[in-house]
Amino acid sequence: MDSLQQKPSLTCANCGSVNVSISHVRSAFWQDDRLVVVEDIPALVCGACAEQFYDDTTVVGLDLLRGEGFPAEKARTALNVPVFSFGDRAAAKSGP
Ligand SMILES: [Zn+2]
């Protein structure tokens, strides 16, 4: 079989479905002890298994952002993020 023709590779890496569409998502990244959120990431989302993945261009773009250290002055806005400890939950559960 000659399948060297380049197709747009919109195939799910997880289940192989071609029911993949582009959706703009928001994702969180850890930069050392700092949590940053990136919005409007063009992600490929599988309609069959809901797997979310990025194409090479997007991965490179995210790597560049990470390489810049997510400079605060470039942030569009900031979020207050509540932080929970799973240990607190376990402690609260004690007793009948
Ligand atoms: Zn899939």
Characterise the protein shown here.
InterPro entries: Znf_MqsA-type (IPR022453). It comes from Albidiferax ferrireducens (strain ATCC BAA-621 / DSM 15236 / T118). This is YgiT-type zinc finger domain-containing protein. The chain has a single domain (about 20-90), classed as Roll (Ubiquitin-like (UB roll)). About 20% of the residues lie in helices and about 30% in strands. The chain is built from 2 helices and 3 strands; from the N terminus they run βββαα. A 3-stranded antiparallel β-sheet has the order 1-2-3, with no helix packed on it. The protein is flat. It starts with 19 loop residues before the first strand and ends with a helix. Bound molecules: zinc ion.
Note the main attributes of this structure.
three-stranded antiparallel beta sheet; binds zinc ion; alpha+beta; flat
Summarize the topology.
Blueprint: E1 20-31, E2 34-46, E3 52-53, H1 56-67, H2 86-92
Antiparallel strand pairs: 1-2, 2-3
This protein binds zinc ion.
Organism: Albidiferax ferrireducens (strain ATCC BAA-621 / DSM 15236 / T118) (Rhodoferax ferrireducens)
InterPro entries: Znf_MqsA-type
Protein name: YgiT-type zinc finger domain-containing protein
* CATH structural architecture: Roll
| Small molecules (ligands, ions, cofactors) in the structure | zinc ion
Strand proportion: 25-35%
Query: Number of DSSP strands?
Result: 3
The total domain count is 1
Protein name: YgiT-type zinc finger domain-containing protein
Organism: Albidiferax ferrireducens (strain ATCC BAA-621 / DSM 15236 / T118) (Rhodoferax ferrireducens)
